[in-house]
Design brief:
The complex is a heterodimer of chains A (114) and B (258). Chain A has 114 residues and is mainly alpha-helical. Chain A is built from four helices and no strands. The longest helix of chain A is centred in the last third of the chain and has 32 residues. Chain B has one domain. Chain B is globular. In chain B, helix 3 crosses helix 4, helix 4 runs antiparallel to helix 10 and helix 8 runs parallel beside helix 12. Classes of the chains: A mainly alpha (114), B mainly alpha (258). The interface between A and B is large, with 48 and 55 residues.
Chain lengths: 114, 258
């Protein structure tokens, strides 16, 4: 049971990877990459979690109250911001591909160029 | 490699990854029993040493501020990349026609305006959302929030204007020079705020402002100004990206309405 969060993380990773491998559409591919990356959120949060502990915010509770690891949560924030902007950049690549080749299928794009 | 071979190849690799991952994770501390020590040290010392009650913000903007500067540069570069890739010369924008829109018009189907209820609800939410976004930016060192989260909330305000069908106002807000300048100034502000620490003989991004009383808005030293800079950069960047994605549709619809 204690392995469950980690298994969820690797499952998300593999599902996202499967989507990327078999994708027939660049926008679908970018969304799969986002799902793949969300596995890192689950993993990081699972690493820093402590049963019964509160958030690492001491605005209303005294210092010393059990709290989860703030380092992984800060990393997670970085992760989310980078993911959001990279998705925007990749989607603009998809728009560009569609503009130049009139298709969004990765395999057809390869055929056209090869 | 055809699709079938690729799928089998993936399946074998996926099983291998799963097996390796599970065997690696079994060696880790059990879930729910975080052992530390770094998180515990930070949780214990941050309030006393930095007068910041939100430890996550303290980690992001103080303990590892340079990493966050790198992160914001990634955001900045992605926004610039998106703008460069998608922005068309203005002549091309005016010549292009959205095929679906013209096809609709040939059938006599105009794009309907949003209903009055949508307009009232969305435009009524703009003001509260801006205030809420500013609150989240300004209180990042006290409660969960900060420049990134507040910036995203602020960036949704122009999108609500778009949803309300007020396309001209959306264009005026999102295509404004302030948005592009704000994006650059936000990052520049962050960069400059790191310098006073060096000038005073310390490390880059070292705090030089008085720490104040923990739990007050004016506390935590440099965190609040850095958060404001981040908020400006994030909100301006997101508004610029949404505008450039919607530009094409926007131009066609604005033309159709005239």
């Amino acid at each position: 049971m204690s392995l469950l969060p980690y298994i969820v993380a690797v499952w998300l990773f593999l599902v996202g990877l499967y989507g990327i491998v078999t994708s027939r559409n660049f926008i679908h591919l970018v969304m799969c990459l986002a799902i793949l990356q969300s596995s890192t959120y689950v993993f990081l949060l699972a690493v820093g979690y402590r049963i019964g502990a509160g958030p690492p915010v001491f605005a209303n509770v005294p210092v010393g109250t059990p709290a989860v690891d703030p380092v992984v949560q800060a990393l997670l924030l970085t992760d989310i911001v980078v993911e959001a902007t990279v998705v925007a950049l990749l989607l603009s690549f998809a728009v560009q591909v569609h503009r130049n080749t009139a298709t969004l299928d990765p395999e057809k794009v390869v055929e056209l160029e090869g | 490699m055809n699709r079938r071979v690729r799928r089998w190849f993936f399946l074998i690799c996926a099983c291998a990854i799963f097996g390796l991952f599970v065997s690696a994770v079994r060696q880790m501390p059990t879930f729910g029993h975080y052992r530390g020590p770094y998180g515990d040290i930070l949780n214990r010392e941050t309030v006393y040493e930095r007068h910041i009650t939100d430890v996550v913000t303290a980690v992001n903007f103080d303990w590892r501020g340079i990493d966050t500067l790198g992160e914001e540069s990634i955001l900045f570069l992605s926004v610039i990349g998106t703008l460069v890739l998608l922005r068309k010369p203005s002549s091309e924008v005016n010549d292009s026609h959205d095929e679906n829109d013209t096809a609709d018009k040939r059938k006599g189907r105009e794009i309907p305006l949003p209903s009055a209820a949508t307009r009232v609800a969305t435009l009524g939410l703009v003001g509260p959302l801006v205030v809420f976004g500013l609150y989240i930016v300004a209180h990042g060192h006290l409660t969960p929030g900060g420049g990134f989260q507040g910036g995203v909330i602020l960036a949704t305000a122009p999108l609500l204007v778009y949803l309300a069908g007020d396309l001209k106002s959306f264009k005026r807000i999102a295509n404004h020079e302030t948005v592009q300048i704000g994006e650059a100034l936000g990052l520049l502000g962050f960069l400059i705020l790191g310098l006073p620490g060096m000038i005073r003989g310390g490390a880059y991004l070292r705090n030089v402002l008085p720490l104040g009383t923990s739990g007050h808005v004016f506390s935590g030293g440099m965190i609040a100004p850095i958060n404001v800079c981040t908020g400006v950069a994030v909100s301006a960047g997101l508004v610029a990206v949404t505008y450039v994605f919607l530009e094409h549709t926007l131009e066609t619809r604005l033309r159709g309405r005239r």
